[in-house]
Design goal:
Blueprint (H helix, E strand, L loop, with lengths): L8 E19 L2 E15 L4 E6 L4 H13 L7 H8 L3 H7 L3 H20 L4 H4 L7 E3 L2 E4 L13 H15 L3 E5 L5 H15 L4 E5 L6 H11 L6 E3 L5 H8 L6 E3 L4 H7 L4 E4 L7 H14 L2 E4 L5 H13 L30 E3 L12 H14 L21
């Protein structure tokens, strides 16, 4: 253990990167082509550097302008002091809607945990109490994807089915989640039926519509797909209130990315939260949120489209948290690169092994960082909300 009593933060580096998918996929707002992230490096006077990852690139600007100046000279092991320097009281952010500082600090706080693990020379899961599991489950992902240089091309139910069968054959995958978003409820119903018939009853099948359906259409869709043993449907409608109304017509569990536990408890829906740790305000706050979910019987699993740093955090937290039993989302198979050595993570037989190195257990790949940083500089951030058929405009998908 090193000189922890005198350790100080000396610098915080922020690097914007793009990591595209091999082919884009359709979601409610248009074509989703990859990740634009901010990679965080928190440097200390002891020569220890911690790694963090912001869920969206623009929070990196908040880190540069607000978070970094506030943390220079701070003790990286004193998380409470670091947060007090950067984040207003939660009552303020909750009532103003101004949560940029919370999310930005959450990305940096992940790096502080990485430093802590390196100081004590142990993997993060041990700092969190030890592993209840070391093989961490993730779903494969499917969706409607246009062809792109030999990848993708799954634009029909038959092609989606073939893709999932291929993932099972090549990688032993039996956990699947996907988006069937082309605005056609009958297309989704037919694809789900074909997937279940082809994959068999033992395969896990989860769906995500990104709030594309109106309540009336969601009633119809869920009624038709309920016989096909759907493990979970994420955001079938736009609000918790509509999910509560939909619950009266369907026994399929619902999940959401919106971490409003009070409303979910009051309304009885959704049943699960699917979240990014930085978006929750950091690892410390995420652990509290998960514990609250456990106390009230709401499930939790982790988000997708993160790069290797945040994914490593997911691996450690799930390893140390008995309550998280469902597989987390992943887009690993579609990512053509990463910023960490030996990345991206990819599952075999549904599982990824938790890293055993100190802290997060991952290291930056300098060549990859340079490559994907240049991609961001040359192409700008990926905008997943633009209409691919009308350049310069945001897509409007009417609720069906």
């Amino acid at each position: 253990m090193r000189g922890i009593n005198t350790m100080k933060i000396t610098n915080i580096k922020v690097t914007h990167v793009n990591v595209p998918f091999d082919a884009p996929f359709w979601w409610t707002a248009g074509l989703y082509a990859g990740a634009s992230k901010s990679i965080i490096e928190v440097e200390t006077d002891e020569g220890i550097t911690g790694l963090g990852e912001a869920p969206w690139w623009h929070f990196g600007e908040t880190i540069k302008q607000e978070i970094a100046p506030a943390l220079i000279g701070a003790d990286p092991l004193d998380l409470a002091d670091c947060e007090a320097r950067c984040v207003p009281p939660w009552q303020i952010t909750a009532n103003t809607g101004e949560n940029a500082a919370s999310v930005a600090f959450g990305a940096v706080e992940l790096a502080l945990w990485d430093i802590r693990g390196k100081v004590f020379d142990m993997p993060l899961y041990k700092l969190l109490g030890g592993a209840v599991r070391k093989d961490i489950p993730f779903t494969e992902y499917f969706g409607f994807r246009p062809e792109n240089e030999g990848a993708g091309g799954e634009m029909t139910p038959e092609a989606v089915v073939d893709y999932c069968l291929k993932m099972r054959e090549l990688h032993g995958s039996t956990y699947f989640e996907g988006k069937l978003i082309l605005g056609d409820p009958q297309l989704e119903i037919r694809t789900v039926r074909m997937l279940r018939e082809a994959l068999g009853n033992e395969v896990m099948l989860r769906l995500d519509s990104n709030m594309q359906w109106s309540l009336s259409t969601a009633r119809h869709v869920l009624r038709e797909i309920e016989p096909y043993n759907i493990r979970n449907y994420e955001d079938p409608v736009a609000t918790f209130e509509e999910m509560a109304a939909l619950r009266q017509h369907s026994s399929i569990p619902f999940s959401t990315h919106i971490p409003d536990l009070r409303r979910a408890l009051d309304l009885g829906a959704p049943d699960y939260f699917v979240c990014n740790f930085a978006a929750l305000g950091g690892l410390s706050r995420s652990l509290k949120f998960i514990a609250a979910c456990e106390a009230v019987g709401k499930g939790f699993w982790c988000y997708s489209n993160d790069l290797g740093i945040m994914t490593a955090a997911y691996l450690h937290v799930v390893a140390a948290t008995p309550w998280i039993t469902e597989p987390s989302q992943s887009l690993f198979r579609w990512q053509i690169g990463d910023v960490i050595e030996d990345g991206p993570f990819r599952q075999t037989d549904n599982y990824v092994r938790v890293p055993e190195g100190a802290g997060l257990g991952v290291n930056l790949d300098s060549e990859s960082m340079s490559h994907w940083s240049r991609h961001f500089q040359e192409h700008g951030p990926m905008n997943h909300f633009l209409d691919p058929d009308r350049p310069g405009r945001y897509r409007r998908l009417p609720l069906n």
